Amino acid sequence: MLKTIKKWPFTSTAIMIFILSALAFPAWSSGTKAIVYLSNKDFLKQSFNGDVPEVKTVWLKGTLKTDISKTLGHNYPALRVRYWLKDHRSAWILEEIGREKPITVGFVVQDQKLVSVKVLVFRENRGGEIRFPSFTEQFDGSELDNNRRLNRRIDGISGATLSVNAVRKLAAVALQLSDHVMKQQTNK
Amino acid sequence: MNVFRSLFLSTCMLAISSVALAKDDLPTREEMWKIIQQQQKQIETLMSQQKSSDAKIDETVSMVEATADVVDQQQTTRVSKTQVGGYGELHYNNLKDKPSGTKKNEIDFHRFVLFFGHEFNEKTRFFSEMELEHSIAGDGKKGEIELEQAYIEHDISTNLSGKAGLFMLPVGILNETHEPNTFYGVERNQVEKNIIPTTWWAGGLGLTGKFASGWSWDATATSGLKTSVDDKYKPRKGRQNVSEAVANNGAFTGRLKWTGLPGLELAASLQYQDNITQGEDPLAGAATLAETHLILERGAFGLRALYAQWNLDGDGPASIGADKQLGWYIEPAWRINQAFGLFARYEQWDNTAGAQIDSQYTQSSIGANYWLNEHVVFKFDLQDQNAPEGAKELDGFNMGVGYQF
Question: What is this structure's pTM?
Answer without folding.
Answer: 0.79
